[in-house]
Each structure stands twice: as C-alpha cells, then as structure tokens.
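Hey team,

Sharing the Semaphorin 4D run so nobody has to redo it. Sequence (122 residues) first:
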Amino acid sequence: MWTQRKRSVPPGPADIRVVWEKNGRALETCVPVQTHALPDGRAHALSWLQDAIRESTEYRCSVISSAGNKTSKVQVAVMRPEVAHQEKWSRELSAWRAVAGEHDRMMQSWRKAWESCSKDTL
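Structure output:
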C-alpha cells in the first residue's frame, strides 16, 4: 500500500528544518522539502512523504526553527487483505441468500397458483 502525506507549513522563519518520523523513529531517507523565501525573512515550506506499508503506521512531521517547533501526526490503518476479502464475501453471500430466498418465495407462489389451476380443471 502506498501512502502519501503532505504537510504545508505556514510562513515562518527561513531557518526551518523538517523531520519525518515513522512509528516514533526518524526516517533516514531523503524527504523532499520545498521552501519559498518571503521578502520579510520568513519562508513557506511544503514537505511530503511516500512510503510502502504492510501494517498500520503512525507518521509525524515536525517543523523545527528558531521561532519554535510544531508537530503534526497521522495514523494510517491498513486492513488485512484477507479480512477485507472475508467481509466482502460475507456481504456478497448475504445478498445471494436474499435473492435466493426471494426466488424461492416466488416459486412457491407460482406453485400454489399452478396447483389451484389444476384443481379447478378437474
């Protein structure tokens, strides 16, 4: 599963540093950060992360600067494919049971009608 998390940092000091963590551990990979210096010495920054995961994962994005630090986090939940498949199968089976039940009721109704017609002709 591919996840992508973007963090847009509001304008602040130009000395910012962005740190990404996955499950509490700093990522060693090079994470893209785009900054745009503003005329008053502040900067606007955008950072994003793309990752392949097989289990639920927490990501944190921390922005560190002389003006202070700010952290945001997100929990990405991964549903097990076999669980999702079983739930889908259960829903499909329920739908088929409902259709089969309706068909059986319709056939019983036709059978009664047919039997009543046969009795009337004798």
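The mean pLDDT is 78.

Ping me if you want the raw files.
A.
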